[in-house]
Amino acid sequence: MLNPLDFSLVFCEFDEVMGPLPKFSFPEINYELGLQIATKSIDLLSGNESPISKSLAFLPFPAEEKKAIVRNIEWQDRKLRGGSAVSSISLVFNEADDLIFYKYVKDLEIIFDDVSKKIVQLKTLKASKEQILDELRKIHGIFLNRLAELNKQETYFGGEVEAFPEVSSNKKVDEYLFKVIVCGDPACGKTSSILRFTQSAFRRTYIPTIGVNMTKKEVQVNNKKINLVLWDLAGHIKFQVMRRHFYEGAKGIILLFDTTRRITFESIPQWYQDIKKGINLQNETITYLCGNKIDLRAERQVSSEQAIEITKKLNIEYFETSALTGENIDQMFYSLAKKIVELYEHSMLK
């Protein structure tokens, strides 16, 4: 269970000479980790090619076994180049505790909204370092209280509860944990497809993924309990170098394109080759091609026949889905889970 005391808040700023820098942390973290957080949260979230992200993002720091929830903050400053300043506030926690943060991210988002407004107010008024650090301590206390409440709630209800628990049975249930990565160009519906599968919901507003988002979903296939950890990889080119670190260990891959935008389909071979550089696609993973947004029939630019043709060349399976209506979403993920288990069990017999 999560230890509510085991997290830190880190405030970073972009310095026009030095670049992204960690300014304050409470409780204090090591400077090297602070630099990594500053670089990822500011350089990646607010690159020159895209506007400041107003949504929260999860960023991994695997070498330190840490993750961070990040919110970028921007305010007007005429003295700076471009007329605005950029900073970030990050809640840094142990990687092992990530499930509770994913589960209750909406609760924490409300606090982040208030934090952002307060920091903009302080920076606009040219507050001193002591004032900002004092505010960071107060914010840490607010997060501490909320996380303690959530931790207590998890303990009271016994943690995760199955929606449809099995009636008592003497049958042994095998349990597996597999990593699945979902790749494709920006705005194809990767995040929405995962959201539809894991929460039966659809996000109508497009929010670009920052680096990677991870979601866990438990499914039952042939009396086997399968935990799929779904890695939603950012499609933007500026995340290309970072993405390659996330391919390793994947047992399932979904290459997703938008059936209403042909350019996203034409980039599939490039995605396939990029992943192939990091892992053995033929012997270690199950790969599916997914054509999303089939509900937009009048706007379709890629036919089923064209998609099937490329799957023959790559020797992979094809699904057509709609994250909006949910059509074929569950079927695709359950089919993938089943194939992954079959491949894994076959390899164990060798």
Task: Tell me what the structure shows.
By secondary structure, this protein is an alpha/beta fold. It folds into 2 domains: 7-156; 174-349, Rossmann fold (3-Layer(aba) Sandwich), CATH 3.40.50.300. It has 11 helices and 11 strands. Helix 3 runs antiparallel to helix 4 (129-156).
Largest sheet: 6 strands, mixed
Order of helices and strands: EEHEEEHHHEHEEHEHHHEHEH
Strand content: 25-35%
CATH class of the largest domain reads Alpha Beta
Shape category: globular
Q: What's the tally of helices?
A: 11
Report the span from N to C terminus.
Answer: 37 Å
Strand order of the largest sheet: 7-8-6-9-10-11
Do you know the CATH topology of the largest domain?
A: Rossmann fold
Determine the structural class based on helices, strands and strand pairing: alpha/beta
| Record field, number of beta strands | 11
Corresponding CATH superfamily of the largest domain: P-loop containing nucleotide triphosphate hydrolases
Architecture (CATH level 2) name of the largest domain: 3-Layer(aba) Sandwich
